[in-house]
Amino acid sequence: MNTPNNARRQHSRDKLIDALLQQLRTKELSEIRVQELCRIAEVNRSTFYACFSDIYDLAQGAQKKLELDASAAYGRKEESDNQTELFLQLFRYIADHQELYKTYFKLGFPAPVELSGADQALAEKYYGGQDVDYHIAFFRAGLNAVVEKWLSEGCRRTPEEINRIIALEYHPKGNG
To answer: Which fold has domain 1-64?
Structure first.
């Protein structure tokens, strides 16, 4: 395996993803052309096609990058007694990276906020192990809808306010 070429290819991929994210701030995906991305990223068209099959493949690469960035900032690996603090950390991250999250939603990808094994365990505790996958799906969709609405309003409300709203929903009535 040729490590220098792999590093160069990854660098080109990253530059193309950054160029795409930059263009998505003002354009729809369907309006963006490979040629202009190559110009912005300062790579050849052949380099683009060595890295991605088409612009939609590039968009999926951008999706993965955004998800990795978010999971690095909000990596819930263990159950915590303080979910409210963990969600506040997430909302602060989103507020600090609004353009990236707006772009993510603009691309129409599935919701970027994933719930972890810790969230699964908490849901099992709250709901006595019944229909947990449905409760998680419901909560995840709601959480992402709140994030998307918050972003569309320019994050006018503070992360603390959004966290309070989510906390009211995260703790089912009658279960503490």
So the answer is: Tetracycline Repressor; domain 2 (1.10.357)
